[in-house]
Amino acid sequence: MGWEIREVQNERDLKRFVRFPLQLYRNYPYFVPPLISDEIEIFSPSKNPAYENCETKLFMVYYNNSCV
Questions:
Q1: Based on the number of CB atoms within 10 Å of its own CB, is 18 exposed (0-12), middle (13-18) or buried (19 or more)?
Q2: For the chain, what is the domain count?
Q3: What pLDDT sits at residue 15?
Q4: What is the 3-state secondary structure (H, E, C) of the chain?
Q5: Which residues contact residue 42 at a Cβ distance below 8 angstroms, ignoring those fewer than 6 apart?
Q6: Which of 23, 35, 46, 58 is close enough to 8 for a disulfide, judged by CB 3.0 to 4.6 Å?
Q7: Residue 1 reports pLDDT greater than 90
């Protein structure tokens, strides 16, 4: 398959996007994991007032169907 860039399109993708740093930094001793619910709320237009003036598109990169 190789490299692929995918847009975050649904809630499942968003949760994967938010949880990716947990996987990436799992062995780093100084990493302080964020609260997943707070991270998801950052991207929620109903919870974040910044969305009154802006839009976002989130992307994830996959290599051989694994998020990298």
A1: buried
A2: 1
A3: 94
A4: CCEEEEECCCHHHHHHHHHHHHHHCCCCCCCCCCCHHHHHHHCCCCCCHHHHCCCCCCEEEEECCEEC
A5: 48
A6: 58
A7: no
Q: What is the pLDDT of residue 65?
A: 87
User: Residue 44: which domain range?
Assistant: 3-67
Residue 14 — left, alpha, or beta (φ > 0 → left; ψ -120 to 50 → alpha)? alpha
The string of pLDDT tens digits covering residues 19-67 is 999 999 999 999 999 999 999 999 999 999 999 999 999 999 999 988 9
Structure tokens at 53: 């003036």
**Chain position carrying tokens 């990716």:** 20
- What amino acid is encoded at 1 in this protein? M
